[in-house]
Write a structure and sequence with these properties.
Number of strands of chain A: 1
Largest sheet of chain A: none
CATH superfamily of chain B: Fe-S cluster assembly (FSCA)
Helix content of chain A: over 70%
Shape of chain B: globular
CATH topology of chain B: GMP Synthetase, Chain A, domain 3
Strand order of the largest sheet of chain B: 3-4-5
Largest sheet of chain B: 3 strands, mixed
Distance between the termini of chain A: 18 Å
Number of domains of chain B: 1
Order of helices and strands of chain A: HEHHHHHHHHHHHHHHHH
Structural class of chain A: mainly alpha
Strand content of chain B: 15-25%
CATH architecture of chain B: 2-Layer Sandwich
Oligomer: heterodimer
Structural class of chain B: alpha+beta
C-alpha cells in the first residue's frame, strides 16, 4: 500500500488537519441548488431587454425627466424599469442566490415557470396600460403580475422555511418578501382607488408611499441582505458583526413601516422615519467597511466595484431623503426636480449599478455552470473572468457614472439637451454591458474548451 | 512498457488542472486539497471549498474525480468534501496568493 501525503512546497504551507475531518453535511447540496440555470437566465434576459428599452424610451423623450414625474409616460417607463429590469433581475437572482446563500434547495422549480409567464405578461401589459393611462387595464395586468408575485413569495417562503433557525440573511430575505407583497398590494389598491375613487389618501402621497415600499423594502433590503453573504464571498472576508447585521435590517424594517405611514398621511414625522432608515444604513455601511477591511483579497474586481459604488450612492440618497421629507421644504420648480433626482439616483444609480455589478458575477456563473460544470477535470475550461472583457467593463463603469452625473445635473436644471447627453452616456454604458453579456452568452451556445496541455499528460504517462 | 508510479508531484500536478472558476486559481494553490491517500488502485482525496454552500461544489468535486481517473494505476477515486477545518486564505500557496491578490501577512 502506498500512502501519499502533500509534500510539495505548494501544499506544505497548508495546515494539515490533525483531528478527524468533518464531512460536508450535504454532499449533493450544490448540485441540487443550482439544478436549473435556464429559468434564472430567462429572467435576466428579460431584465436586460427591459433595461435597454427603458433607456431607449428615455432617449426618445428626454423631456420626461425635465418635468415633474407624475405623468403617464414617465410612470410607464418607471414601471418598465422597475418591474421589467430590476424585478426581473432580482427575481431571477433570488431563485439562484437564495438557495446558495441559505445552503438549501428551491421549494419548486415548476412554480418558477408559472411565475415567469405571469410576470412577463403582467408587466408588459402594465407598461402599455400606463402609457395609454387605461387604469382598468393596469388593474387587470397588475392582478396577473400580483399572482406571479404571490407564487414567487410562496416559493421562496417555503424555501426559507426549510432552513432551521434564523440568521440576518434569512431575516433580510423574509423582510424583502414581506415588503414585495406589500408593494404590489399597495399598487393594486392605488389602481383600484383610481378606478372607483374610494380612497381618501392624496394620490401623489399614496404613489410615493408605494414607491418607497418597493425601493427601500425590496431593492435596498435585498442589496443589504445579499451583500452580507456575497461581499465576503467575493472578497475572501467574513461577516464581522452579526448583531450589527441584525440591527441594520431591523432598523430598515422599522423605519420603512414608519415612512410608509408618514408619507401616506403626509405627516410631519417623515424625517424621523427617514432617520431610522438612515441609522440602519449607517450600521450596514459600518459592517460593509469592516468586511472590506478584513478582506484577504486586496484587489477588488470590477463587478464588486460597480456594487460598492452603488452603495456609496446611499449617502446622497439619504441626504436627499432627509431634505425632501422636511415638511417646510419650499415647493419650487427646483425642489420638485430634486424628487426626480431622488428617484433617478435610487433606481438608475443605486439599484441599476448594483444590479449591473451583480450581473457580472451572476451571469458568468450561470452560463459557466451550464456549459462547463460537467467538463471540469476533463478539458481546460475558462475562469469566470475570462468570459468577458474587463477593459469594456471598466469603460462601462466610467460612462455609467459620468452619464448619471450629467443626467442628475441636467434634471435639476430641467435641461433637455443635458438629459439627452446624460442619457446617451448611460445608453453607451448599457451598450457596452450588452456587448459583454453577449460575450458571456456566446459560451452558452459555443463553449470554449481546450484540451489540457499535452506535457502534463506525457509526464503522467511516463512516470 | 513504462511503469507508472504515483507520486505526490504527479497527483498535485494533475489536480492543478482543476480550477475554481470564480477565483481563477487551481485547487492545489488555493489550498483546498487537505490530503490524499492511495491504496489498491483507489485514490481518496479529502478536500474543502472556499465557502460552505459554494455553488461549484459538485462541479469541482466531480472535476477532481474526472482528472484523477486519467492517471495510470488509479481505478477508483473517492472525493470527500469536508468543512472542518474551514478553508482560510492562509492555506493558499504563494502562487495562489499572487494570482488572487491575497495578502501575504
Amino acid at each position: 500500500m502506498e500512502v501519499l501525503s502533500p509534500k510539495s512546497a505548494g501544499v506544505e504551507s497548508n495546515p494539515a488537519p490533525r483531528k478527524p475531518l468533518r464531512p460536508a453535511t450535504s454532499p449533493s447540496l450544490a448540485g441540487v441548488q443550482a439544478a436549473s440555470v435556464r429559468l434564472p437566465l430567462c429572467f435576466v434576459l428579460v431584465g436586460v431587454l427591459s433595461l435597454l428599452a427603458s433607456a431607449g424610451f428615455l432617449l426618445a423623450q428626454p423631456d420626461l425627466l425635465a418635468m415633474y414625474h407624475y405623468t403617464p409616460h414617465l410612470i410607464a417607463i418607471t414601471h418598465l424599469f422597475v418591474l421589467g429590469f430590476i424585478c426581473s433581475i432580482v427575481m431571477g437572482a433570488m431563485y439562484q442566490l437564495v438557495p446558495v446563500t441559505l445552503e438549501t434547495q428551491l421549494f419548486s422549480e415548476r412554480l418558477v415557470k408559472w411565475q415567469f409567464a405571469a410576470h412577463v405578461i403582467g408587466f408588459v401589459g402594465m407598461v402599455f396600460a400606463f402609457w395609454t393611462f387605461n387604469m382598468a387595464l393596469v388593474g387587470a395586468f397588475g392582478s396577473l403580475l400580483t399572482l406571479g408575485v404571490g407564487l414567487f413569495v410562496f416559493n421562496l417562503a417555503r424555501t426559507l422555511a426549510k432552513v432551521k433557525g434564523w440568521n440576518p440573511i434569512k431575516f433580510g430575505i423574509a423582510s424583502a418578501l414581506f415588503w414585495l407583497a406589500s408593494t404590489v398590494s399597495a399598487g393594486l389598491f392605488l389602481t383600484a382607488s383610481k378606478c372607483w375613487s374610494f380612497s381618501s389618501f392624496q394620490p401623489l402621497a399614496a404613489m410615493h408611499a408605494h414607491a418607497h415600499l418597493g425601493v427601500v423594502g425590496v431593492f435596498v433590503m435585498m442589496i443589504v441582505t445579499v451583500s452580507y453573504k456575497l461581499v465576503p464571498m467575493f472578497t475572501l472576508s467574513e461577516l464581522q458583526n452579526e448583531r450589527r447585521a441584525w440591527w441594520s435590517i431591523a432598523l430598515l424594517d422599522l423605519g420603512l413601516a414608519g415612512a410608509f405611514a408618514a408619507i401616506l398621511v403626509q405627516s410631519s414625522l417623515k424625517p424621523v422615519a427617514a432617520l431610522v432608515i438612515i441609522a440602519g444604513l449607517l450600521l450596514y455601511g459600518t459592517e460593509i467597511k469592516a468586511i472590506l477591511r478584513a478582506r484577504n483579497r486586496r484587489a477588488l474586481d470590477w463587478g464588486i466595484r460597480y456594487f460598492l459604488t452603488a452603495l456609496a450612492l446611499l449617502v446622497p440618497l439619504s441626504i436627499l431623503a432627509l431634505a425632501l421629507s422636511w415638511s417646510r421644504l419650499p415647493v419650487t420648480a427646483f425642489t420638485m426636480q430634486l424628487e426626480n433626482i431622488y428617484g433617478l439616483l435610487a433606481l438608475a444609480g443605486l439599484a441599476g449599478l448594483a444590479i449591473l455589478g451583480m450581473l457580472y458575477k451572476i451571469v458568468p456563473f450561470l452560463v459557466w455552470f451550464h456549459s462547463y460544470s460537467r467538463q471540469i477535470g476533463r478539458v481546460k475550461v475558462p475562469a469566470l473572468a475570462e468570459m468577458y472583457s474587463v477593459p469594456l467593463q471598466i469603460a462601462g463603469y466610467w460612462s455609467f457614472l459620468t452619464g448619471l452625473g450629467v443626467l442628475c445635473v441636467a434634471t435639476a436644471l430641467s435641461h433637455e439637451a443635458g438629459i439627452r447627453w446624460g442619457g446617451g452616456l448611460l445608453a453607451l454604458s448599457l451598450a457596452i454591458f450588452a456587448v459583454n453579456m453577449g460575450k458571456i452568452l456566446s459560451h452558452f451556445v459555443r463553449p470554449k474548451i481546450q484540451a489540457f496541455a499535452p506535457k502534463t499528460f506525457t509526464a503522467a504517462k511516463n512516470l | 512498457m513504462t511503469t507508472t508510479t504515483l507520486t505526490d508531484e504527479l497527483v498535485l500536478e494533475t489536480l492543478r488542472q482543476v480550477i475554481d472558476p470564480e477565483l481563477g486559481v487551481n485547487i492545489v494553490d488555493l489550498g483546498l486539497v487537505y490530503r490524499y491517500a492511495y491504496a489498491a488502485g483507489k485514490l481518496t482525496v479529502t478536500m474543502t471549498l472556499t465557502t460552505p454552500g459554494c455553488p461549484m461544489h459538485d462541479s469541482i468535486a466531480e472535476g477532481v474525480k474526472n482528472i484523477l481517473q486519467t492517471l495510470d494505476g488509479v481505478t477508483d477515486v473517492d472525493v470527500q468534501v469536508v468543512w472542518d477545518p474551514p478553508w482560510h486564505p492562509s492555506m493558499m500557496t504563494p502562487a495562489g496568493r499572487a494570482i488572487t491578490g491575497v495578502r501575504n501577512d
